[in-house]
Specification:
- The chain is mainly beta.
- Helices cover 8% and strands 54% of the residues.
- The strands form two sheets. Strands 1, 3, 4, 6, 7, 8, 9, 10, 11, 12, 13, 14 and 15 form a 13-stranded antiparallel β-sheet that branches. Strands 5-2-16 form a three-stranded antiparallel β-sheet, with no helix packed on it.
- A hairpin with a 3-residue loop joins strand 11 and strand 12.
- The chain starts with a strand and ends with a strand.
């Protein structure tokens, strides 16, 4: 399913080696391995409530998407989703993922004069929440899930997640309403086009703040807890 709008439009490794023949070297290696393990703790428990409730994420302020020297700024964006029903809304050892609609963006402008941006969003998007300090939120963009095109003085095509699904990192804050924030989040892109297009860019930078409301019961709040 696809939406086209005038618009704009997130490795862990540790190893230790033990060598026979030097007690000191062995102890040092063990210590380094222990330190690495301490720096990379296992994910804690996460619960998103209310279970089974629908939600809507609404942009506050502007969302910006910058690839090379070109920036797209949008003042309207909305996505909807559903908290998993119990017991799927709780994970004792990691994040809780919720499917969301492909975000729609409108009221967008480009940093290049005489250029009009349009976007097509499609595919299976999701956002996963991990309790912690801060609470983290990861938005998954499906392969080719967001395509920005410009027309006018520069005809460019920017395809997000061009070869594989991409994870866009953000943060979550509980509140009334709760907020979902993406700050200088890196998104892989492929840029094609002629003069004025940032064809050498392989990543774009995304900034946006969304308020998240409970659409099943507006008196309640979508909340992330242990």
């Amino acid at each position: 399913m696809s939406r086209t709008r005038t618009a704009f439009a997130l490795g862990l490794a540790a190893a230790g080696a033990l060598t026979l023949g030097s007690v000191t070297a062995t102890a040092a290696t063990d210590g380094a391995t222990a330190a690495a393990g301490a720096a990379l703790p296992a994910a804690g428990s996460t619960t998103v409530t209310p279970a089974g409730h629908g939600f809507k994420a609404t942009l506050t302020g502007k969302a910006t998407f910058k690839a090379g020297s070109v920036t797209i700024s949008c003042s309207v964006s909305v996505a909807t989703g559903t908290v998993p029903a119990a017991p799927g809304n709780s994970n004792p050892a990691g994040a809780v993922a919720s499917p969301i609609s492909a975000p729609a963006y409108s009221s967008c402008t480009a940093s290049l004069p005489g250029v009009t941006p349009t976007v097509t969003s499609s595919g299976a998007w999701q956002v996963s929440m991990q309790n912690g300090s801060p609470i983290t939120a990861t938005m998954t963009v499906p392969t080719g899930g967001l395509v920005v095109k410009t027309s006018g003085l520069a005809s460019c095509t920017v395809t997000s997640a061009p070869t594989a699904a991409a994870s866009v990192p953000g943060t979550w804050a509980n509140g009334a309403p709760s907020t979902l924030t993406f700050t200088n989040a890196s998104v892989p892109v492929k840029v094609t086009g002629g003069f004025g297009c940032p064809t050498s860019a392989t990543t774009a930078v995304f900034n946006a703040v969304y308020t998240v409301s409970d659409t099943t019961d507006p008196a309640q709040q979508i909340t992330v807890t242990p």
